[in-house]
Amino acid sequence: MYLLPVSFPGILRSMRIDTYKLGVWIAVGCLFTVIIGFRHIVGCDWWAYLDHYDTISKLPFSQALTNTDPAYATINWICAQFGLGIYGVNTICGVLAMSGLIRFVRKQPLPWLALAVAVPYLIIVIVMGYSRQGVAIGLVLWGLAVLRPGHIFEYIAAVILASLFHKTAIVMLPLALLHSSLSFRLRLLILVPLTGLAGYSLLSNSYDDLVKNYVVSQMNSDGGFIRILMNAVPAILFFALRKRWRRRWDDNKTWICFSFVSLISVPLVVLSSTATDRLALFLIPLQLVFYARLPLMFHGTYVRKLVILFIVAVYAMVLYIWLSRSYHAQLCWEPYRSVLFN
Q: What phi and psi values does residue 248 have, to the nearest 5 degrees?
């Protein structure tokens, strides 16, 4: 079941469907949202989220807001008032996450390839396993889709909204300063407190038990280092091919920043695996944007097709190995269940 979504972009292309039309993307987004929203007992935090929903359903709204990050608490409380259950919460989270992801990938020259890269880890593991982190990343992607010099306010709004779902999203706020028209001194003056706030959000121990359980079970494993390496590989390739990149696209500064942080995350994981892996989640956009552009940095249709095939094959293999070898995947993700079929 999980390998099927990876093939969606290829199926659409083989059917000669115009994958650039908005209607096609809305349909794809709806399909993924159904898979995400109506999943049943999928993800290692499923029961924790369910307990969380039950707790909030019994609280007045003012108390519910203090139970967890306010935006996620609000969705839980509203769904409880209308009797929508955890499936209503997950569906709304799926809509938000997929909206941001689709807006971002549609900005890429090979959007269907960016989507295929997103499926194995971002969609299946993060969005389907850890709802708040998934929504936060989706909203950050929404902001990144419009981030450019002189147009930073929508990005800032998206990051602030993302931080209301998961506090660590605030780490993406300093990126707006790269595209600000403010003087260097003023940007530096703003950057210092923002960096401190971002660092606190990564290192803080004030997260609820749901996040702590996730950190303990996932981040102290070898999987955390592998996830960081998945960001480091495109970062290395980006710097190696940066001249070709600059000749074709004008968003060099943003992805230099992503690549640099991805590389320094590799040694930093030894010092603080928890904080580094939290940060690595928000560096995933580098994988999407780099691999969606990599084929176009080569000449010749045949070579480009080989590069595309290689990228899809690698990510399909990563997903297959994770599903077949990972203890957590077999315990919490396999088999895929949906309330629609139970």
A: -110, -30
Q: What angle do CA 100, 193, 186 make, to 5 degrees?
A: 90
pTM higher than the cut 0.85: yes
CA–chain centroid gap for 34, Å, is 18
Task: Using pLDDT thresholds of 50, 70 and 90, give the confidence band for residue 325.
Answer: confident
Non-local CB neighbours of 299 within 8 Å, separated by 6+ positions: none
pLDDT, one tens digit per residue, over 13-56 is: 555 666 678 889 999 999 999 999 999 999 988 999 999 999 99
Are the C-beta atoms of 163 and 136 separated by less than 8 Å? yes
Cβ atoms 60, 122 nearer than 8 A: no
User: Which of 100, 10, 87, 163 shows the shortest CA–CA distance to 339?
Assistant: 87
Mean pLDDT value across residues 228-254: 94
Give the number of domains in the chain: 1
The predicted pLDDT at position 17 comes to 61
Q: Per the structure block, which two tokens stand in for 179?
A: 């595209």
The highest-confidence range among 14-23, 201-210, 211-220, by mean pLDDT, is 14-23
User: Do the domain assignments include residue 62?
Assistant: yes
Its domain, for residue 159, covers: 21-172
* Beta bridge partner(s), residue 39: 338
Asked if the peptide bond before residue 295 counts as cis, ω within 30 degrees of 0, the response is no
Residue 67 covered by a domain? yes
């303990």: which residue's tokens?
216
Instruction: Check whether 307 has a pLDDT greater than 70.
Output: yes
- In the chain, the N- to C-terminal Cα span, in Å, equals 16
Q: Phi/psi at 39 (nearest 5 deg)?
A: -65, 150
Contact status, residue 66 vs residue 125, Cβ threshold 8 Å:
no
Residues in the chain: 342
Report if residue 55 sits inside a domain.
yes
Q: For 268-273, what is the mean pLDDT?
A: 72
**CB neighbours of residue 268 within 10 Å:** 16
